[in-house]
Amino acid sequence: MFDGVTVIGGGLAGSEAAWQIARRGVPVRLCEMRPGKQTGAHKTANLAELVCSNSFKSNLPHTASGELKREMRSLGSMILEAADEASVPAGEALAVDRELFAASVQSRLNALSSVEIIREEAERIPDEGLVIVATGPLTSEALAADVARITGSERLFFYDAVAPIVETDSIDFDHCWEGSRYDKGDGAYLNCPLSKEQYDEIYEAICSAELAPVHDFEDPRFFEGCLPLEEIARRGPETLAHGPWKPVGLRDPRTGERAHAVVQLRRENSAGTCYSLVACQSRMTWPEQRRIFGMIPALANASWLRLGVVHRNTYLDSPRLLDTALRLRSVPRVAFAGQITGVEGYLESAATGLLTGINAALALLSEDEPFVPPAESMLGALVRYVAESESAAFAPMNANFGILPPVGGPKRRKEDRRRIACDRAHDALIKAAEVQGVLSVPTAPGV
User: Fold this and answer.
1) Residues 316 and 304 in one domain
2) Residues 235, 227: Cα–Cα separation, whole Å
Protein backbone atom coordinates (compact mmCIF):
# COMPACT_ATOMS: atom_id res chain seq x y z
CA MET A 1 0.00 0.00 0.00
CA PHE A 2 1.29 3.48 -0.91
CA ASP A 3 2.07 5.33 2.35
CA GLY A 4 1.70 8.82 0.89
CA VAL A 5 -1.07 10.84 -0.77
CA THR A 6 -2.49 10.39 -4.25
CA VAL A 7 -3.48 13.67 -5.92
CA ILE A 8 -5.59 13.32 -9.05
CA GLY A 9 -5.38 16.30 -11.37
CA GLY A 10 -2.41 18.51 -12.23
CA GLY A 11 -4.17 21.86 -12.45
CA LEU A 12 -3.83 24.74 -10.00
CA ALA A 13 -5.49 22.95 -7.09
CA GLY A 14 -3.71 19.63 -7.62
CA SER A 15 -0.30 21.25 -8.12
CA GLU A 16 -0.70 23.36 -4.99
CA ALA A 17 -1.90 20.36 -2.97
CA ALA A 18 1.03 18.22 -4.13
CA TRP A 19 3.50 20.97 -3.21
CA GLN A 20 2.05 21.47 0.28
CA ILE A 21 2.22 17.74 0.97
CA ALA A 22 5.69 17.18 -0.45
CA ARG A 23 7.29 20.21 1.22
CA ARG A 24 6.36 18.56 4.50
CA GLY A 25 8.26 15.42 3.47
CA VAL A 26 5.24 13.25 2.66
CA PRO A 27 5.35 11.21 -0.60
CA VAL A 28 2.94 12.31 -3.32
CA ARG A 29 1.71 10.70 -6.49
CA LEU A 30 0.39 13.42 -8.77
CA CYS A 31 -1.73 11.93 -11.56
CA GLU A 32 -2.36 14.00 -14.70
CA MET A 33 -3.98 12.44 -17.77
CA ARG A 34 -2.61 14.97 -20.27
CA PRO A 35 -1.03 14.67 -22.81
CA GLY A 36 -2.21 11.08 -23.26
CA LYS A 37 -5.80 12.26 -22.98
CA GLN A 38 -6.71 15.88 -23.57
CA THR A 39 -9.78 17.88 -22.55
CA GLY A 40 -11.92 20.08 -24.75
CA ALA A 41 -10.21 23.23 -23.47
CA HIS A 42 -6.57 22.44 -22.65
CA LYS A 43 -3.97 22.83 -25.38
CA THR A 44 -0.74 21.64 -23.73
CA ALA A 45 0.59 18.95 -21.42
CA ASN A 46 1.70 21.54 -18.87
CA LEU A 47 0.80 21.25 -15.23
CA ALA A 48 -1.21 24.28 -14.05
CA GLU A 49 -2.16 25.29 -17.60
CA LEU A 50 -4.40 28.36 -17.51
CA VAL A 51 -7.36 27.78 -19.80
CA CYS A 52 -9.46 30.93 -19.51
CA SER A 53 -8.05 34.29 -18.41
CA ASN A 54 -4.42 34.84 -17.44
CA SER A 55 -5.46 37.00 -14.46
CA PHE A 56 -5.54 36.11 -10.77
CA LYS A 57 -7.62 39.25 -10.17
CA SER A 58 -6.88 42.23 -7.94
CA ASN A 59 -3.68 42.57 -5.95
CA LEU A 60 -5.04 45.43 -3.84
CA PRO A 61 -4.85 44.56 -0.13
CA HIS A 62 -8.41 45.44 0.90
CA THR A 63 -10.23 43.61 -1.87
CA ALA A 64 -11.66 40.11 -1.55
CA SER A 65 -9.15 38.57 -3.95
CA GLY A 66 -6.34 40.64 -2.45
CA GLU A 67 -7.16 39.33 1.01
CA LEU A 68 -7.34 35.74 -0.19
CA LYS A 69 -3.90 36.19 -1.78
CA ARG A 70 -2.53 37.57 1.49
CA GLU A 71 -3.83 34.57 3.41
CA MET A 72 -2.49 32.13 0.84
CA ARG A 73 0.92 33.77 0.85
CA SER A 74 1.00 33.56 4.65
CA LEU A 75 0.37 29.81 4.34
CA GLY A 76 3.15 29.41 1.75
CA SER A 77 1.27 29.17 -1.54
CA MET A 78 3.49 27.86 -4.32
CA ILE A 79 0.98 28.89 -7.00
CA LEU A 80 1.24 32.54 -5.98
CA GLU A 81 5.05 32.33 -5.83
CA ALA A 82 5.00 31.06 -9.41
CA ALA A 83 2.46 33.70 -10.43
CA ASP A 84 4.59 36.50 -8.98
CA GLU A 85 7.61 35.12 -10.82
CA ALA A 86 5.73 34.99 -14.15
CA SER A 87 3.73 38.21 -13.74
CA VAL A 88 3.07 40.65 -16.57
CA PRO A 89 1.88 44.27 -16.25
CA ALA A 90 -1.87 44.32 -15.53
CA GLY A 91 -2.62 47.47 -13.55
CA GLU A 92 -3.86 46.54 -10.10
CA ALA A 93 -4.33 42.88 -11.03
CA LEU A 94 -1.95 39.92 -10.87
CA ALA A 95 -1.72 38.54 -14.41
CA VAL A 96 0.85 36.09 -15.73
CA ASP A 97 2.60 34.88 -18.83
CA ARG A 98 0.85 31.51 -19.16
CA GLU A 99 3.83 29.55 -20.45
CA LEU A 100 6.27 30.99 -17.92
CA PHE A 101 3.79 30.37 -15.12
CA ALA A 102 3.21 26.72 -16.03
CA ALA A 103 6.96 26.15 -16.44
CA SER A 104 7.59 27.67 -13.02
CA VAL A 105 5.01 25.41 -11.34
CA GLN A 106 6.34 22.32 -13.07
CA SER A 107 9.97 23.05 -12.22
CA ARG A 108 9.08 23.50 -8.56
CA LEU A 109 7.31 20.15 -8.42
CA ASN A 110 10.01 18.37 -10.40
CA ALA A 111 12.58 19.58 -7.89
CA LEU A 112 10.90 17.76 -5.00
CA SER A 113 12.18 14.24 -4.53
CA SER A 114 8.97 13.18 -2.78
CA VAL A 115 6.77 14.01 -5.82
CA GLU A 116 6.11 11.37 -8.47
CA ILE A 117 4.25 12.73 -11.51
CA ILE A 118 2.24 10.02 -13.27
CA ARG A 119 1.08 10.85 -16.78
CA GLU A 120 -1.98 8.66 -17.19
CA GLU A 121 -5.71 8.89 -16.63
CA ALA A 122 -7.00 7.95 -13.20
CA GLU A 123 -10.29 6.27 -14.01
CA ARG A 124 -11.13 5.40 -10.41
CA ILE A 125 -10.51 6.77 -6.95
CA PRO A 126 -7.99 4.43 -5.24
CA ASP A 127 -9.57 1.99 -2.81
CA GLU A 128 -7.02 2.73 -0.08
CA GLY A 129 -4.96 5.60 1.24
CA LEU A 130 -5.43 9.35 1.31
CA VAL A 131 -6.68 10.84 -1.95
CA ILE A 132 -7.28 14.39 -3.16
CA VAL A 133 -9.45 14.70 -6.26
CA ALA A 134 -8.58 17.97 -7.99
CA THR A 135 -9.67 17.24 -11.54
CA GLY A 136 -11.36 20.57 -12.11
CA PRO A 137 -14.26 21.46 -14.35
CA LEU A 138 -13.24 18.99 -17.07
CA THR A 139 -13.18 15.78 -15.07
CA SER A 140 -13.00 12.80 -17.44
CA GLU A 141 -16.12 10.76 -17.99
CA ALA A 142 -14.65 7.65 -16.36
CA LEU A 143 -13.53 9.42 -13.20
CA ALA A 144 -16.72 11.49 -13.02
CA ALA A 145 -18.70 8.26 -13.06
CA ASP A 146 -16.58 6.92 -10.21
CA VAL A 147 -17.05 10.15 -8.26
CA ALA A 148 -20.80 9.69 -8.73
CA ARG A 149 -20.43 6.13 -7.48
CA ILE A 150 -18.53 7.01 -4.31
CA THR A 151 -20.66 10.07 -3.51
CA GLY A 152 -24.00 8.59 -4.50
CA SER A 153 -24.64 11.91 -6.15
CA GLU A 154 -25.74 12.93 -9.62
CA ARG A 155 -23.34 15.25 -11.33
CA LEU A 156 -24.15 18.92 -11.79
CA PHE A 157 -23.18 20.97 -14.81
CA PHE A 158 -22.88 24.55 -15.90
CA TYR A 159 -20.86 26.10 -18.69
CA ASP A 160 -17.65 28.10 -18.57
CA ALA A 161 -16.73 30.53 -21.35
CA VAL A 162 -13.30 31.58 -22.62
CA ALA A 163 -12.33 35.02 -24.00
CA PRO A 164 -10.55 35.60 -27.35
CA ILE A 165 -6.86 36.53 -27.70
CA VAL A 166 -5.57 38.89 -30.39
CA GLU A 167 -2.06 39.40 -31.80
CA THR A 168 -0.65 42.78 -30.72
CA ASP A 169 0.79 43.66 -34.12
CA SER A 170 -2.67 43.47 -35.67
CA ILE A 171 -4.25 46.02 -33.28
CA ASP A 172 -4.86 49.50 -34.72
CA PHE A 173 -3.34 51.77 -32.09
CA ASP A 174 -4.88 54.83 -33.75
CA HIS A 175 -8.20 53.67 -32.30
CA CYS A 176 -7.16 52.78 -28.74
CA TRP A 177 -4.99 54.02 -25.92
CA GLU A 178 -3.02 52.50 -23.06
CA GLY A 179 -4.12 53.10 -19.48
CA SER A 180 -5.92 51.79 -16.40
CA ARG A 181 -9.14 53.01 -14.81
CA TYR A 182 -8.69 56.35 -13.05
CA ASP A 183 -5.05 56.24 -14.22
CA LYS A 184 -4.26 53.75 -11.44
CA GLY A 185 -1.65 51.05 -11.90
CA ASP A 186 0.82 50.79 -14.76
CA GLY A 187 -1.51 51.34 -17.70
CA ALA A 188 -1.24 47.77 -18.93
CA TYR A 189 -4.66 47.76 -20.61
CA LEU A 190 -5.48 48.84 -24.14
CA ASN A 191 -8.77 50.73 -24.18
CA CYS A 192 -10.90 50.57 -27.32
CA PRO A 193 -13.58 53.32 -27.21
CA LEU A 194 -16.99 52.95 -28.83
CA SER A 195 -19.37 55.76 -29.71
CA LYS A 196 -23.08 55.30 -29.07
CA GLU A 197 -23.63 54.46 -32.73
CA GLN A 198 -20.78 51.92 -32.79
CA TYR A 199 -21.95 50.36 -29.54
CA ASP A 200 -25.56 50.00 -30.76
CA GLU A 201 -24.39 48.35 -33.99
CA ILE A 202 -22.23 45.84 -32.13
CA TYR A 203 -24.93 45.20 -29.55
CA GLU A 204 -27.49 44.34 -32.23
CA ALA A 205 -24.97 42.07 -33.95
CA ILE A 206 -24.28 40.20 -30.71
CA CYS A 207 -27.97 39.71 -30.00
CA SER A 208 -28.59 38.22 -33.46
CA ALA A 209 -25.35 36.23 -33.71
CA GLU A 210 -25.29 32.52 -34.43
CA LEU A 211 -24.24 30.52 -31.39
CA ALA A 212 -22.17 27.36 -31.31
CA PRO A 213 -24.48 24.42 -30.59
CA VAL A 214 -24.34 22.59 -27.27
CA HIS A 215 -24.19 18.97 -28.34
CA ASP A 216 -23.74 16.89 -25.24
CA PHE A 217 -25.69 18.45 -22.40
CA GLU A 218 -28.97 20.21 -21.84
CA ASP A 219 -30.05 23.00 -19.50
CA PRO A 220 -26.85 25.08 -19.65
CA ARG A 221 -26.29 27.18 -16.52
CA PHE A 222 -23.63 29.86 -16.44
CA PHE A 223 -21.70 31.15 -13.45
CA GLU A 224 -22.74 34.77 -12.94
CA GLY A 225 -19.14 35.98 -12.80
CA CYS A 226 -18.25 34.39 -16.15
CA LEU A 227 -21.29 35.00 -18.34
CA PRO A 228 -20.83 34.84 -22.10
CA LEU A 229 -21.11 38.24 -23.75
CA GLU A 230 -24.35 37.35 -25.53
CA GLU A 231 -25.99 36.27 -22.26
CA ILE A 232 -25.24 39.68 -20.73
CA ALA A 233 -26.49 41.48 -23.86
CA ARG A 234 -29.85 39.69 -23.71
CA ARG A 235 -30.58 41.37 -20.40
CA GLY A 236 -30.98 44.78 -22.03
CA PRO A 237 -29.51 47.20 -24.59
CA GLU A 238 -27.23 48.98 -22.11
CA THR A 239 -26.08 45.99 -20.04
CA LEU A 240 -22.69 45.84 -21.76
CA ALA A 241 -22.11 49.61 -21.51
CA HIS A 242 -22.98 49.49 -17.79
CA GLY A 243 -21.24 46.16 -17.20
CA PRO A 244 -18.04 44.72 -18.71
CA TRP A 245 -17.68 47.56 -21.23
CA LYS A 246 -18.39 50.40 -18.81
CA PRO A 247 -16.31 53.52 -19.56
CA VAL A 248 -16.16 54.68 -15.93
CA GLY A 249 -12.68 55.87 -14.95
CA LEU A 250 -11.49 55.88 -18.55
CA ARG A 251 -11.05 59.12 -20.48
CA ASP A 252 -9.33 59.18 -23.83
CA PRO A 253 -6.15 61.21 -23.22
CA ARG A 254 -6.24 62.39 -26.81
CA THR A 255 -9.68 64.00 -26.52
CA GLY A 256 -10.32 64.23 -22.78
CA GLU A 257 -13.74 62.68 -23.39
CA ARG A 258 -15.40 59.55 -22.09
CA ALA A 259 -16.76 57.16 -24.71
CA HIS A 260 -20.18 55.52 -24.52
CA ALA A 261 -18.46 52.16 -23.94
CA VAL A 262 -14.89 50.86 -23.75
CA VAL A 263 -13.67 47.38 -24.61
CA GLN A 264 -10.48 46.66 -22.65
CA LEU A 265 -7.64 44.41 -23.79
CA ARG A 266 -5.28 42.92 -21.20
CA ARG A 267 -1.69 41.86 -21.87
CA GLU A 268 -1.36 38.08 -22.11
CA ASN A 269 2.42 37.59 -21.87
CA SER A 270 5.55 39.32 -20.66
CA ALA A 271 6.65 40.12 -24.21
CA GLY A 272 3.38 41.94 -24.88
CA THR A 273 2.84 40.10 -28.16
CA CYS A 274 -0.80 39.31 -27.51
CA TYR A 275 -3.79 40.65 -25.61
CA SER A 276 -7.04 39.09 -24.40
CA LEU A 277 -10.41 40.80 -24.63
CA VAL A 278 -11.48 41.42 -21.05
CA ALA A 279 -14.91 39.96 -20.19
CA CYS A 280 -15.53 39.04 -23.83
CA GLN A 281 -15.94 35.32 -23.31
CA SER A 282 -18.45 34.00 -25.81
CA ARG A 283 -20.11 30.98 -27.34
CA MET A 284 -20.82 32.73 -30.64
CA THR A 285 -19.53 30.76 -33.62
CA TRP A 286 -15.99 31.63 -34.62
CA PRO A 287 -17.00 33.34 -37.91
CA GLU A 288 -19.46 35.46 -35.93
CA GLN A 289 -16.79 36.37 -33.38
CA ARG A 290 -14.40 37.45 -36.13
CA ARG A 291 -17.12 39.56 -37.72
CA ILE A 292 -18.49 41.16 -34.54
CA PHE A 293 -15.24 41.79 -32.68
CA GLY A 294 -13.90 43.14 -35.97
CA MET A 295 -16.54 45.88 -35.70
CA ILE A 296 -14.47 47.36 -32.85
CA PRO A 297 -12.38 49.96 -34.74
CA ALA A 298 -9.10 48.98 -33.07
CA LEU A 299 -9.69 45.33 -34.05
CA ALA A 300 -10.88 45.82 -37.62
CA ASN A 301 -7.86 43.94 -38.97
CA ALA A 302 -7.20 41.75 -35.96
CA SER A 303 -5.29 38.50 -36.19
CA TRP A 304 -6.94 36.13 -33.71
CA LEU A 305 -4.71 33.74 -31.80
CA ARG A 306 -7.69 32.20 -30.03
CA LEU A 307 -11.42 32.73 -30.25
CA GLY A 308 -13.95 32.16 -27.51
CA VAL A 309 -15.15 28.69 -26.61
CA VAL A 310 -17.56 27.22 -24.08
CA HIS A 311 -16.73 24.11 -22.11
CA ARG A 312 -18.36 21.96 -19.48
CA ASN A 313 -17.81 22.59 -15.80
CA THR A 314 -18.48 19.83 -13.27
CA TYR A 315 -18.98 20.35 -9.56
CA LEU A 316 -20.34 18.50 -6.55
CA ASP A 317 -23.36 19.07 -4.37
CA SER A 318 -20.73 19.95 -1.78
CA PRO A 319 -22.92 21.13 1.15
CA ARG A 320 -24.40 17.65 1.27
CA LEU A 321 -21.16 15.77 0.63
CA LEU A 322 -18.14 17.62 2.08
CA ASP A 323 -17.04 18.80 5.51
CA THR A 324 -15.22 22.07 6.17
CA ALA A 325 -11.88 20.35 5.50
CA LEU A 326 -13.31 19.46 2.05
CA ARG A 327 -13.31 15.74 2.88
CA LEU A 328 -16.13 13.42 1.96
CA ARG A 329 -18.27 13.01 5.05
CA SER A 330 -18.93 9.40 4.09
CA VAL A 331 -15.29 8.59 3.16
CA PRO A 332 -13.00 11.07 5.01
CA ARG A 333 -9.82 9.69 3.45
CA VAL A 334 -11.00 11.24 0.16
CA ALA A 335 -10.89 15.02 -0.18
CA PHE A 336 -11.76 17.29 -3.08
CA ALA A 337 -10.10 20.51 -4.19
CA GLY A 338 -10.55 23.09 -6.93
CA GLN A 339 -13.58 23.93 -9.00
CA ILE A 340 -15.11 20.49 -8.54
CA THR A 341 -15.91 21.57 -4.95
CA GLY A 342 -17.95 24.56 -6.08
CA VAL A 343 -15.39 27.35 -5.83
CA GLU A 344 -15.00 29.56 -8.88
CA GLY A 345 -11.75 31.09 -10.07
CA TYR A 346 -8.04 30.35 -10.34
CA LEU A 347 -7.23 31.83 -6.95
CA GLU A 348 -10.02 30.04 -5.14
CA SER A 349 -9.13 26.72 -6.76
CA ALA A 350 -5.50 27.01 -5.71
CA ALA A 351 -6.57 28.00 -2.19
CA THR A 352 -8.59 24.81 -1.73
CA GLY A 353 -5.65 22.79 -3.02
CA LEU A 354 -3.43 24.50 -0.48
CA LEU A 355 -5.83 23.64 2.35
CA THR A 356 -6.38 20.00 1.38
CA GLY A 357 -2.64 19.54 0.86
CA ILE A 358 -1.84 20.88 4.31
CA ASN A 359 -4.46 18.64 5.88
CA ALA A 360 -3.39 15.51 4.02
CA ALA A 361 0.15 16.00 5.34
CA LEU A 362 -1.15 16.69 8.86
CA ALA A 363 -3.18 13.48 8.76
CA LEU A 364 -0.05 11.42 8.08
CA LEU A 365 2.39 13.34 10.27
CA SER A 366 0.28 13.78 13.40
CA GLU A 367 -3.03 12.95 14.98
CA ASP A 368 -4.19 16.55 15.02
CA GLU A 369 -7.59 17.56 13.76
CA PRO A 370 -7.55 19.06 10.25
CA PHE A 371 -6.77 22.74 9.94
CA VAL A 372 -9.97 24.62 9.10
CA PRO A 373 -9.37 28.38 8.72
CA PRO A 374 -11.61 30.50 10.95
CA ALA A 375 -14.88 31.83 9.57
CA GLU A 376 -13.58 35.41 9.78
CA SER A 377 -10.85 34.61 7.20
CA MET A 378 -11.57 34.72 3.48
CA LEU A 379 -10.40 31.13 3.00
CA GLY A 380 -12.41 29.97 5.98
CA ALA A 381 -15.53 31.75 4.74
CA LEU A 382 -15.08 30.22 1.30
CA VAL A 383 -14.81 26.62 2.52
CA ARG A 384 -17.77 27.15 4.83
CA TYR A 385 -19.83 28.34 1.88
CA VAL A 386 -18.84 25.20 0.00
CA ALA A 387 -19.55 22.84 2.90
CA GLU A 388 -22.42 24.60 4.64
CA SER A 389 -24.33 26.65 2.07
CA GLU A 390 -28.03 26.66 2.86
CA SER A 391 -29.08 27.64 -0.65
CA ALA A 392 -31.62 25.31 -2.20
CA ALA A 393 -29.73 25.51 -5.50
CA PHE A 394 -26.02 25.33 -4.66
CA ALA A 395 -23.93 27.24 -7.21
CA PRO A 396 -20.21 28.05 -7.51
CA MET A 397 -18.82 30.97 -5.51
CA ASN A 398 -15.66 33.06 -5.57
CA ALA A 399 -14.05 35.11 -2.83
CA ASN A 400 -16.20 38.11 -1.92
CA PHE A 401 -17.13 40.18 1.10
CA GLY A 402 -20.66 38.79 1.13
CA ILE A 403 -19.49 35.45 2.54
CA LEU A 404 -17.59 37.02 5.47
CA PRO A 405 -19.27 37.60 8.83
CA PRO A 406 -20.46 41.23 9.06
CA VAL A 407 -18.29 43.83 10.73
CA GLY A 408 -20.04 45.09 13.87
CA GLY A 409 -19.80 48.42 15.61
CA PRO A 410 -20.80 51.87 14.39
CA LYS A 411 -21.90 52.58 10.86
CA ARG A 412 -18.90 53.01 8.54
CA ARG A 413 -18.13 53.68 4.91
CA LYS A 414 -17.89 50.59 2.71
CA GLU A 415 -14.14 51.08 2.22
CA ASP A 416 -13.59 51.21 5.98
CA ARG A 417 -15.75 48.12 6.58
CA ARG A 418 -13.76 46.19 4.02
CA ARG A 419 -10.43 47.29 5.42
CA ILE A 420 -11.51 46.19 8.90
CA ALA A 421 -12.87 42.90 7.55
CA CYS A 422 -9.60 42.15 5.74
CA ASP A 423 -7.42 42.96 8.73
CA ARG A 424 -9.66 40.85 10.95
CA ALA A 425 -9.53 38.02 8.40
CA HIS A 426 -5.77 37.88 8.20
CA ASP A 427 -5.25 38.21 11.95
CA ALA A 428 -7.70 35.37 12.60
CA LEU A 429 -6.04 33.13 10.03
CA ILE A 430 -2.53 33.70 11.38
CA LYS A 431 -3.61 33.11 14.97
CA ALA A 432 -5.36 29.83 14.10
CA ALA A 433 -2.46 28.67 11.93
CA GLU A 434 0.05 29.39 14.70
CA VAL A 435 -2.02 27.52 17.28
CA GLN A 436 -2.11 24.43 15.08
CA GLY A 437 1.51 24.71 13.95
CA VAL A 438 0.59 25.04 10.28
CA LEU A 439 3.12 27.81 9.71
CA SER A 440 6.03 25.70 11.00
CA VAL A 441 6.93 23.60 7.98
CA PRO A 442 9.93 21.23 8.05
CA THR A 443 12.30 21.52 5.13
CA ALA A 444 11.90 18.55 2.79
CA PRO A 445 14.57 17.52 0.26
CA GLY A 446 14.52 19.78 -2.77
CA VAL A 447 12.55 22.63 -1.15
Assistant:
1) no
2) 11
Q: What is the CATH number for 396?
A: 3.50.50.60
Tell me, yes or no, whether 153 lies in a domain: yes
Cα 392 from Cα 389, distance rounded (Å) = 9
The H-assigned helical ranges of 187-261 are 196-207, 229-233
Nearest to 275 by CA among 164, 165, 163, 162: 165
Q: In this structure, what are the phi and psi dihedrals at residue 205, rounded to the nearest 5 degrees? A: -65, -40
Cα 417 from Cα 406, distance rounded (Å): 9
Digit-by-digit pLDDT tens for the chain (447 residues) are 788 999 999 999 999 999 999 999 999 999 998 775 666 556 676 888 988 789 999 999 899 999 999 999 999 999 999 999 999 999 899 999 999 999 999 999 999 999 999 999 888 999 999 999 999 777 888 888 888 888 887 656 666 667 899 999 899 999 999 998 888 767 779 999 999 999 999 999 999 999 987 644 445 566 666 788 999 999 999 999 999 999 999 999 988 999 999 999 998 877 788 899 998 989 899 999 999 999 999 999 999 988 887 766 678 989 999 999 999 999 999 999 999 999 988 999 999 999 999 999 999 998 779 999 999 999 999 999 999 987 766 778 889 888 998 888 788 888 898 999 999 999 999 999 999 989 877 555 555
Domain membership of residue 446 (yes or no) is no
Same domain, 401 and 427: yes
The verdict on 20 and 153 lying in the same domain is yes
Domain-located, residue 444: no
Q: Determine the straight-line distance between the first and last CA of the chain, rounded to whole angstroms.
A: 26
Alpha carbons 267 and 277: distance in angstroms, whole number: 9
Give residue 363's Cα distance to chain centre.
Answer: 27
Count of structural domains, the chain? 2
Distance from C-alpha of 249 to C-alpha of 259, rounded to nearest angstrom:
11
Shared domain for 44 and 83, answered yes or no, is yes
Last residue of a domain, one of 246, 276, 308: 308
258 plus 392 within the same structural domain:
no
Which residues span the domain enclosing 426? 5-160+312-436
